[in-house]
Amino acid sequence: MPSPTIKGTTRGYVIPIGGGEEKFENPEILAKFVALSGGTDAVITVIPTASQLDDTGQRYQKIFEEIGVKKTYSLPITERSDAQNADYVKTLEKSTGIFITGGNQLRLSTILGGTPIAKTIRQLNAQGVNYAGTSAGAAIVSQHMITGGTTGIVPTEDGVNLAPGMGLINTIVVDQHFNERNRLSRLLSAVSYNPFLIGVGLDEDTAAFIDHNNEFTVVGSGAITVVDPSDIEYSSMAEARRGDALTLLNLKVHILAAGGRFNIGERKAYVN
Amino acid sequence: MPSPTIKGTTRGYVIPIGGGEEKFENPEILAKFVALSGGTDAVITVIPTASQLDDTGQRYQKIFEEIGVKKTYSLPITERSDAQNADYVKTLEKSTGIFITGGNQLRLSTILGGTPIAKTIRQLNAQGVNYAGTSAGAAIVSQHMITGGTTGIVPTEDGVNLAPGMGLINTIVVDQHFNERNRLSRLLSAVSYNPFLIGVGLDEDTAAFIDHNNEFTVVGSGAITVVDPSDIEYSSMAEARRGDALTLLNLKVHILAAGGRFNIGERKAYVN
């Protein structure tokens, strides 16, 4: 569950990005994240923990500086003891926007899970600080996080692996590189485990800007595929054997390109 | 449009198969096609026109003989003049089951389209002769046939190429090797051109046995993905530019494993 908001404050944006958003000369998604976080006065803290590359934090600092951000930090958290570091927590508390890079989402959950850094991210977001994360940094936003699974279209009984995520948002499960890596089967497998979940599949260079009303707008060059299983009439998940193709009747699916909107609470898609 | 049925006769089965059904020791789908066509007394005629391999017809004759069929034919139709051959038409008329192999569906439409052979297939099916076709032979059953397109999940304005098929069945558009080759994007592109169409994506070793009531049962080891766009609330297809991701709101999707059923006229999925 997301950290409770405090009376008088408004939750910050939660912005999962499908990966690859930094490869463009005009990074529309990152620029919008900056604009919402104070523009040139934003204070952006990068957490590159998912990545195994030494320069990932600096690379993103540079991107944010090129967008015009005057103050950026990168926290070199590579093991659990780093995530207890009180100085890092203090730096984090100065942020108007927090950014988690791509890499391996299991590094994020195993290194950050349950630490002061994770707790601070959750509290700051509840108090109005924006969170954006790409690829692994997108996966981690949901309470139930996809860590692996089959590729393709058709779900199977063992088509997805889940782990607890950071839980900045509940009721959705996020997948990334969605169209590029053909990940519908694992998203369908995930939502059919428990149809209270809504599946949100993010293409590369595409983000869901989720506001404090639990409604998101699509930004970027690809699409977001929303899989809503709430009207499912029948699912063979409970009886299926390992590897079996599943039967799922009456899934609702929305494909949302830039400008499309989806209200998570009402499970309703819009345009305009 | 399918050929009209004659008073007192019942239309034969139309059985599109997603490909790869012949690679198994016990070819369940082909055995069921044979059983419906008279069992050991069936007369099965193979049309290998889609294939460029010389032995495709003989290979399928052998498979049907191993299932127990006493009488099999293969018609070596490789160009349009062959499809005018009156002897081939006479052989075809002896069939209780007609089988079209895989290969290139554009060979089927360009070589068979509008010929006496195509006309006879349509008439025989209307009079009760069963039709089965795998891969290219599955694609050709629909009036609007997919000949190519993008792979992936998300549909685009130019995501699919269509050509006129044999029209044994209307209102559905069929795709094959569906899960294996990640073909949801092209099927979604096809149904969003005109939402009267229902998309039917067949996995390999999986078939839709469509009966004379326009209802099909799933047979085989994979699944059939049914995409029903009839409740679409919004589609950006008409305004989208070439290559743009589309917005499509409120698609209905069913994933049907073996035993699943779908009534095409009522657009309703069932189990049991």
From TrEMBL, chains A, B:
Q: What is its EC number?
A: 3.4.15.6
Tell me the organism's taxonomic lineage. Bacteria, Pseudomonadati, Pseudomonadota, Gammaproteobacteria, Alteromonadales
Cite the InterPro entries for this sequence.
Answer: Class_I_gatase-like, Peptidase_S51, Peptidase_S51_cyanophycinase
Enzyme class comes to hydrolase
What reaction is this protein's catalytic activity? [L-4-(L-arginin-2-N-yl)aspartate](n) + H2O = [L-4-(L-arginin-2-N-yl)aspartate](n-1) + L-4-(L-arginin-2-N-yl)aspartate
Q: Which family does it belong to?
A: Belongs to the peptidase S51 family.
What's the protein called, per UniProt? Cyanophycinase
Q: Which Pfam families match?
A: Peptidase_S51 (PF03575)
What keywords are assigned to this protein? Answer: Carboxypeptidase, Hydrolase, Protease, Serine protease
**What GO annotations for molecular function exist for this entry?**
carboxypeptidase activity; peptidyl-dipeptidase activity
This protein's species is: Glaciecola petra
Query: What does this gene product do?
Result: Exopeptidase that catalyzes the hydrolytic cleavage of multi-L-arginyl-poly-L-aspartic acid (cyanophycin; a water-insoluble reserve polymer) into aspartate-arginine dipeptides.
